[in-house]
Specification:
The chain contains nine helices and five strands; from the N terminus they run E-H-H-E-H-E-H-H-E-H-E-H-H-H. It has 281 residues and is of the alpha/beta class. Helix 6 links the parallel strand 4 and strand 5. The chain is elongated and about 105 Å long. The two termini are 21 Å apart.
Length: 281
């Protein structure tokens, strides 16, 4: 599959990620796009979440998602609706595995946002349901978090009237919960490290240019001084031998001046290349 020119992150979830009951630009997905931009990342965020989506729906849609967007990262947030409907945990786990395998086979990294269900479903079912996310993550070796709604689920101030869906005030917390795992990925850390290395290289190159310019100025001043010294030498005894003529020191300074100038041009070229890489990564 051909990767998109612009690195893409797809959020593949249900109503918790679709911005149910709030404005789209308030949703944690939109906040993720803003955070990435603020921190200098060039990723485009596509929110492919649908309210009411189940893991079976995810299996049905994942092929078209990968084909349409060619994402570099899939943030998978499915399973909550399966749990609320009492679907067998084994079926949920099998569906999540199919989605993850398909996404990874298409070249994307995957992170999984775990979810929990109300305790009135019984401790046995709840434990089996929550184990689904751990099992599939460990088996397929992907990064995950245990509870996407951590700090929100039991706080009425952060929930809508249905006491299920997070309100607008909860969205920054959802982002922070998801970011705790997204920020550990090498694709994020690597991009940040490359940016720092690039800036450091440019700064170092500018320092070399300044040093080169100062060296050229010093060499030019020495050359002028030596030439004036030679012109004023006339018939003085110390000028009797060519070896003592300061002009030869000046000539040597001139050769060094040429070398310094060549180095300066090389440093300018390197810095220009670094800036070009920064503008056109």
């Amino acid at each position: 599959m051909v990767r998109a020119e612009e690195p893409t992150i797809v959020i593949f979830g249900d109503s918790l990620s679709a911005g149910y009951g709030i404005e789209v630009d308030q949703s944690w997905g939109s906040l993720l796009q803003a955070r990435l931009k603020e921190q200098g990342y060039e990723y485009k965020v596509v929110n492919a979440s649908i309210s009411g989506e189940t893991t079976q729906g995810g299996v049905t849609r994942i092929d078209s998602i990968m084909s349409d967007f060619s994402p570099d990262l899939v943030i998978l947030e499915l399973g909550g609706n399966d749990g609320l409907r009492g679907f067998p945990p084994a079926r949920i786990e099998n569906n999540l595995e199919k989605v993850i395998v398909q996404a990874k086979s298409a070249g994307a990294a995957v992170v999984l946002l775990g979810i929990r269900i109300p305790t009135n479903y019984g401790s046995r079912y709840s434990a089996a349901f929550e184990a689904v996310f751990r099992n599939v993550s460990e088996r397929l070796k992907i990064q995950w978090i245990e509870f996407f709604m951590e700090g929100i689920a039991l706080n009425d101030d952060l929930l809508q009237e249905d006491r299920i869906h997070p309100n607008a005030n909860a969205q920054p917390m959802l982002l922070d919960n998801a970011w705790s795992i997204i920020s550990t990925l090498s694709m994020i850390n690597g991009a940040l490290g490359q940016a720092f290395d690039l800036v450091g290289g440019i700064i170092g190159g500018i320092g070399d240019i300044i040093d080169g310019a100062l060296s050229i100025a010093g060499g030019a001043l020495q050359l002028i001084t030596d030439v004036l010294s030679f012109l004023n030498c006339e018939e003085k005894p110390e000028c009797d031998t060519v070896e003592n003529w300061s002009i030869w020191d000046g000539a040597n300074a001139g050769v060094g001046l040429g070398d310094d100038f060549s180095s300066l041009i090389e440093n300018i070229t390197n810095v220009a290349g670094g800036i070009s890489d920064a503008v056109n990564p």
